[in-house]
Every structure is written in structure tokens, then in C-alpha cells.
Write a structure and sequence with these properties.
Layout: H1 5-13, E1 20-24, E2 30-37, E3 40-47, E4 50-53, H2 59-65, E5 67-72, E6 78-79
Parallel strand pairs: 4-6
Antiparallel strand pairs: 1-2, 1-5, 2-3, 3-4
Length: about 80
């Protein structure tokens, strides 16, 4: 697999918008990424239609191993 520059640029734009970059890995789950500051990224994993914050950042893993699906505002679906 190779680095998806389109996905990398999409994640970068989330810092200045209400959107999250959505990734999918076949057979696993969907993951949402949001850039907060410089090299700080928030990671959310979809579970039962809601998004749960993850402790670890999967930024690099998503860029190399998951399919970028687009950006969306999932803020109303995030659980604490």
C-alpha cells in the first residue's frame, strides 16, 4: 500500500472546519480523524452507529492501511 496524499490533505483541513476525515478498513470498522493542533489528532471509532473517542491516535495507520471515504460532520454522533 502507499500513502494516500488526498487523505492526508483531507485530515489537514479538518483542523479549520467542523468535519472529520472518515476511513474504512475492510473487515474491521470505520475510523474518524480530526486534526487539533500541529501533530495532535483525535481518533474516533464507529460502534453501533455512534462514534467513540479512542485513547490512541491512528493517524499514520489510517493513511497507510485504510481507505479514505471522505469528510463529514459527525459531532452530533460522538459519545463520551
Amino acid at each position: 500500500m502507499s500513502l494516500d496524499n488526498k487523505a492526508d490533505k483531507a485530515v489537514e483541513t479538518t483542523q479549520y472546519s467542523n468535519t472529520y476525515a472518515i476511513f474504512y478498513r475492510e473487515g474491521t470498522c470505520r475510523i474518524a480523524m480530526k486534526k487539533v493542533h500541529d501533530s495532535l489528532y483525535l481518533t474516533f471509532r464507529e460502534k453501533d452507529g455512534l462514534w467513540e473517542k479512542q485513547d490512541e491516535s491512528l493517524y499514520t495507520w489510517c493513511l497507510w492501511n485504510a481507505e479514505y471515504q471522505g469528510c463529514d460532520d459527525i459531532s452530533s454522533l460522538i459519545t463520551e
